[in-house]
Write a structure and sequence with these properties.
154 residues, 3-stranded antiparallel sheet, 6 helices, two-stranded parallel sheet, alpha+beta, 2 domains
C-alpha cells in the first residue's frame, strides 16, 4: 500500500486493521493532550503499516497561543512522553532535527533542534557547581535534507 503520510497513527487509520494483526493501539487523554501509542509487534504489523517493529507515539495538543509560558502543561505532556522513550540510566541524548527548514510544513525538526539547550560540553563538576547535578548531556544536529546537502539523511 502507498501511504501519503509517515505517521504511524495516520497509517493505522488508513489501514483500519483488525485484531491480531501485530499492531496495538492505546489512546489516553492527559490534562492537556491526547496521546496515542501504536506498538508494532510483528512482521505482519510492520508490513501492514510500512514501518519497522517498534513503538510510535503521537501527542496531539491544542494550539499554542501568545499566552504560552514555561509552565504550560502542554510542554510537560510532550516532555513526559519523550522521557518514556528513553532507556533507564541514559548517559546522553542526541536530538536530530530532520526536515527542510526552508519549507514550513517540513521545518518542525530543524526549528525544534535549534531551540534545544545543548549541554554535552558542560562538565559534571560544573553542572554540580551551578546546582544542576542531574544534568544530562544533550547534543543536537540539523543535517538538512537531500535537496539541500546532496546527502541522504533520513
Amino acid at each position: 500500500m502507498i501511504f501519503g503520510t509517515d505517521l504511524a497513527l495516520e497509517r493505522r487509520e488508513i489501514t483500519n486493521s483488525g485484531k491480531n494483526d501485530g499492531v496495538t493501539v492505546t489512546k489516553r487523554n492527559t490534562q492537556s493532550a491526547s496521546v496515542t501509542e501504536i506498538e508494532i509487534t510483528s512482521d505482519v504489523g510492520a508490513e501492514k503499516l510500512g514501518k519497522p517493529v517498534g513503538r510510535y507515539v503521537t501527542v496531539e495538543l491544542p494550539p499554542f497561543s501568545s499566552e504560552f509560558d514555561d509552565t504550560d502543561s502542554r510542554m510537560f505532556a510532550v516532555r513526559d512522553e519523550i522521557k518514556k522513550l528513553l532507556p533507564k540510566n541514559t548517559s546522553g541524548v542526541l536530538v536530530v532535527g530532520l526536515g527542510n527548514s526552508d519549507i514550513t510544513p517540513d521545518a518542525l525538526g530543524p526549528k525544534t533542534a535549534k531551540d534545544i539547550f545543548s549541554t554535552r560540553h558542560i562538565t559534571k563538576s560544573l553542572a554540580e557547581e551551578i546546582g544542576l547535578p542531574s544534568l544530562l548531556p544533550v547534543s543536537s544536529a540539523v543535517p538538512g535534507v537531500l535537496g539541500q546537502t546532496g546527502i541522504e539523511s533520513a
